[in-house]
Design a protein that fits this description.
The protein is built from 9 helices and 4 strands; from the N terminus they run αββααααααααββ. It is mainly alpha-helical. A two-stranded antiparallel ribbon has the order 1-2. Strands 3-4 form a two-stranded parallel sheet. Helix 1 (2-12) runs antiparallel to helix 2 (40-49) and helix 4 (76-91) crosses helix 6 (109-122). It is globular, with a radius of gyration of 18 Å. The two termini are 27 Å apart.
């Protein structure tokens, strides 16, 4: 669970990953108490409070992911190369196009940020496999209503070894969770709200 929250951070941000649950569903969830929210920083701290001390990782000591070791003891070129391989496998034949769009977005820093995230966070598969990582990314993208990115990661999950049935099942479960929290299809006349502007991307 900790690793899933960490891997959701690159697409949702560290302070908050955009899945909020209100139960029962409420048409105005932003004005009501949040029962459970998936937030990377806050969720990890809450998870820490509920985890037996023997199961916690101490700062900068052994971790199942070995990310501290990768950060301080392994050449960055090695980690970035791993991220490049992961990215190319995920995006397949359009990988150069996708990275090129980020490099030519008006600031090369977007491409650099992507390379760092894929290298140091997403391509580390010591805890979550490449397939499981794709499921985390799909789950984090669906509630954000970002179909262009979601389409890439639905296909990327297949490239990472998932079956079509598994990808469709993950998509369906996440949509049902979002709907239970109050997300709906937004009408064109609605300027803003908790929902999707168009049908959620599918394979």
């Amino acid at each position: 669970m900790r690793e899933a929250l960490v891997k959701a951070a690159p697409i949702g941000g560290l302070p908050k990953v955009s899945i909020i649950f209100n139960y029962p569903p409420d048409p105005y969830p932003e004005t009501n108490p949040v029962i459970l929210s998936w937030q990377t920083i806050n969720s990890l701290l809450a998870l820490k409070a509920a985890t037996p001390p023997a199961l916690l990782d101490e700062p900068l000591t052994y971790s199942p992911t070995s990310r501290a070791l990768e950060l301080y003891d392994i050449p960055s070129s090695t980690i970035l190369r791993r991220g490049h391989i992961f990215f190319e496998k995920l995006y397949g034949k359009v990988s150069k196009l996708v990275m090129g769009q980020m490099d030519e977005s008006g600031t090369e820093d977007l491409g650099i940020a992507a390379r760092l995230m894929y290298g140091y966070i997403l391509s580390n598969t010591r805890v979550l496999t490449a397939t499981e990582t794709s499921f985390v990314l799909i789950a984090g993208l669906i509630p954000q209503d970002v179909n262009p990115q979601l389409k890439g990661h639905l296909k990327g999950a297949l490239n990472n070894g998932a079956s079509l049935e598994e990808v469709k099942a993950v998509r369906e479960v996440v949509i049902r969770i979002c709907e239970a929290s109050g997300m709906t299809k937004l009408e064109d006349s609605v300027p803003a709200g908790w929902g999707w502007r168009s049908a959620v991307a599918n394979l």
